[in-house]
Amino acid sequence: MNLSSTPIPLCVDFSSPGDYFLFIFHLCAGVSTVLVAGSVALGIIRTRALVRQNRFLFMLNTSICDTMSGCGIFYQFLFDVRVGFPSKNGTYYILPSLLGVNIMTFLFAQFDRYFAVCHPFFYGRFINTRVVICVNVYSWVHVFGQLLIQHMVPLSKAIEIAIYSRISLLLIIITKITMTVKLLIVAKHQLLREPPGPDRDSKKESLLIIVLVVVFFLLLWGPSMLYTILSSLTGKYLDIKNDAVNPMKILSRSNALCTPSLYLCASPALRAAVWKSVWSKICCCKRPARIGSKFDGVKNSNKAESISIKL
Question: Rounded to whole angstroms, how far apart are CA atoms 297 and 293?
Fold first, then answer.
């Protein structure tokens, strides 16, 4: 295979069957991530009942971020790219910054669910759709604004900003773990005291989703973040050819597929909205009700004919 026509070589040279398997694996991972995360984002946008709920706005923000991460898989893992330090054909830290957007969104969503369950009067008075949208927009502006400043300032200032970012990341992770434990306690004790009903089921579902998402996020991103922190402190880095063969990068990028999949598994309302507004139109499926109505119409016409014959 001639690879000289591409300015950036592919991640493998296709000299063994394992190279073909690795390339196809990353290709399928990118397609699956874009399809799942993109369908979740479209399902929420096209369903007015979901857009009016604050928890689905946080899901929308992370799904858009995961869709962009899925698109980034086609570059980061199919070509000879190493994002991070030492960088090779990097993306100027644009793809890693999507992690920061997700982290901040998850943290805001945890506080949102905590106040919704434990302080409903305060939540209903001060937290509305406009506030949630502003918080989600702030997560993008904060992360990518900081990245823009880091590229515009001198190297010494950029290093100081990078150190500040890592310290902030540690504090956010500690806060996320604390809030996850707190939400588990709230789900176990606070909701049991509420009367059964749709409101209680909705709160229970939202708490379950955010806890599962944060737990899987920490499990999948934990090794990569721990390696980044330790390598920054010690100054020692593993000599890995590119991100396509880096198990920590592969594990962390799988979170972009895991998060929207958890949304679909844990939320029946979201599942129905995604099917109705996205996949049913793609698959050109007809509703069973229409088939049934046509069948009933045929039966009614047959009955009318039989009555007219008897008369």
Answer: 6
- Max Cα–Cα distance, the chain, nearest Å: 99
Residue 65: C-alpha distances to residues 93, 110, 143, 231 (Å): 15, 18, 12, 26
The model's pTM is 0.84
- The CA R_g of the chain, rounded to the nearest whole Å, is 24
SS3 content of the chain, % helix, strand, coil (to 5): 80, 0, 20
Q: What does the alpha-carbon distance between residue 11 and residue 81 come to, in Å, rounded to a whole number?
A: 7
Write b or e for each residue in 46-59: b if 16 or more Cβ atoms lie within 10 A of its Cβ, otherwise e: ebeebeebbbbbbb
As a whole number of angstroms, the distance between CA 6 and CA 8 comes to: 5
229-281 pLDDT, tens digit per residue, is: 787 777 777 888 899 999 999 999 999 999 999 999 989 999 999 999 888 88
What are the tokens at 284? 């050109």
Residue 152 to residue 233: CA distance in whole angstroms? 25
Q: Position 203: which residue type?
A: K
The full DSSP string for 71-107 is: HHHHHHTTBT-B-SSS-BS--TTHHHHHHHHHHHHHH
For residue range 154-201, list pLDDT tens digits in order. 888 887 888 788 788 888 888 988 888 888 887 777 666 766 767 777
The three-point CA angle 217-78-82 to 5° equals 70
DSSP single-letter state for residue 191? G
Least Cα distance to 79 among 10, 129, 151 occurs for 10
Q: How large is the angle between the packed helices 129-152 and 54-76, nearest 10 degrees?
A: 30
Separation of CA 265 from chain center: 13
- In angstroms, the CA 112 to CA 257 distance is 23
Q: Is residue 207 a contact partner of residue 113, using CB atoms and an 8 Å limit?
A: yes
Say how many residues make up the chain: 311
Query: Cα–Cα distance between 56 and 172 in angstroms, integer?
Result: 22
